[in-house]
Amino acid sequence: MLTLFRAELKRSWALIKAYPVDQVASVVILAFLFYMLFLGANYVAGGIPLGGGRIESIFIGYVAWLLMMTNYQSVSRSIRDESTQGTLMQLLTSPYSTRQILLTRAAASGLSCSI
Amino acid sequence: MTVAPGTILAFLGPNGAGKTTTIKMVAGLLIPDEGTVLIDGANPEKDRSVYARVGIVLEGSRNLYQQMSARDNLEYFGVIKGLTLADAKVRTAELLTYFGLTHKAKTRVSQLSSGMQQKLTIACSLLNRPKLLLLDEPTNALDVQAAEEIKALMKQLASEGLAILLTTHQLDVAQAVADRVAIIRDGKILVEETTSTLLSRFAGDFYKVSFAGDLGQEQSEKLQALGVAVNDKALSFHGDSDTVYRVMEVLRPLPVLNLSQGDSDLSSVFLKLMKEEKSC
């Protein structure tokens, strides 16, 4: 499984490098949305600084939120993309089960995006 | 139907006959309603480890990540096929050399020519050193040179001991590479025998006609109904002397340049079998 994870990590990096503008735009948009959510939550809380006002708390919150957003629908999106690209059949005929591949991929792309 | 090591079995049939479905059943992607698929003695439906002995190239897709380099694709699919990362790297280098793609190792797949992409797809299917290679329309949409290269490659792989199950609509490709031919229609195998036996069986009543001028729409339709294969200014068909006169009648008033009785080809055998089956 570690071998598969390393291969998926490498694949994620290769695809991130292939679409750098997409990746930067995605991070900027997600950061903006997070900031809006943060401001909204702050307002609802009556102006009390969330996480004690510490930047670490905000950062950890952002990373957790980013991971959640990245992995949410990751598996179903992966299946759709593989089907469109014509690579799904190759995955279905792997000695690894499709579930193993897609879950490992979700973890690897989550880690890539966070980095 | 059996594919022996070191041989190519061409699996032919009209659209919708069940060729790709059969390939998918052999690959374990579809479960057959009846019958059993055995690869090297094991059933892929029940034993996933069989996939380590099968290479698959499916029609209609390039089976590759277009935005990744040739090398990255091979290394990734090497792991997907069950190799370790180190083994996948070694095997990638071997296959890039074997297919003459070393100079394109870092090139994105989307920037490769169709022929190179198809070679890379076949290289991917060989990563795990399979015993059986399933090729679904491997020369589709390739130019003449690329198709010739793929044909030579298929022969070479078979000579190295690989069993190849090939489906194609290009009957000249099948005739050039296949040791055996199986023709299917509506899920039923009409014939399965060696290519040479099949061709010689139909050789006696085979005719070729060359003519000048252009065929009209009505003439083409009538010729098709007679089971005649039309190739530019030449016709080929199986039949008796009565069929010959009927073809001549359809051709009238175009000038006939040559009429000869000769060696059969797979296209005309295929058309004859389809016509016979239709009339049954």
Following the backbone from N to C, one meets helices and strands of chain B in this order, namely: EHEHHHEHEHEEHEHEEHEH
**Total helical segments of chain A:** 6
Tell me the distance between the termini of chain B: 23 Å
What amount of the residues of chain A lies in strands? under 5%
Large-scale geometry of chain B = elongated
Strand content of chain B: 15-25%
Most strands sheet of chain A: none
Radius of gyration of chain A: 17 Å
Task: Record the strand order, biggest sheet of chain B.
Answer: 2-3-4-1-5-6
The SSE order of chain A reads HHHHHH
Q: Give the uncertain stretches of chain B in residue-range form.
A: none
Low-confidence stretches of chain A: none
C-alpha end-to-end distance of chain A: 21 Å
Largest interface here, residues on each chain?
A-B, 23 and 33 residues
* Mean pLDDT reading of chain A: 78
How much helix, percentage-wise, in residues of chain B? 25-40%
Structural notes for this entry:
With 115 residues, chain A is mainly alpha-helical. Chain A has 6 helices and no strands. The model of chain A has no long low-confidence stretch (mean pLDDT 78). Chain B has 280 residues and is α/β, with parallel strands linked by helices. In chain B, 39% of the residues lie in helices and 19% in strands. Chain B is built from 10 helices and 10 strands. Chain B has helices spanning 19-26, 70-80, 85-98, 114-125, 144-159, 171-177, 195-201, 217-225, 241-251, 266-279, and strands spanning 8-12, 54-57, 132-136, 163-167, 180-185, 188-194, 206-211, 229-231, 234-238, 256-261. In chain B, the strands form 2 sheets. Chain B has a 6-stranded mixed beta sheet with strand order 2-3-4-1-5-6, sandwiched between helices. In chain B, strands 8-9-7-10 form a 4-stranded antiparallel beta sheet. In chain B, helix 2 (70-80) packs across helix 3 (85-98) and helix 4 packs parallel to helix 5. Chain B is elongated and about 70 Å long. Classes of the chains: A mainly alpha (115), B alpha/beta (280).
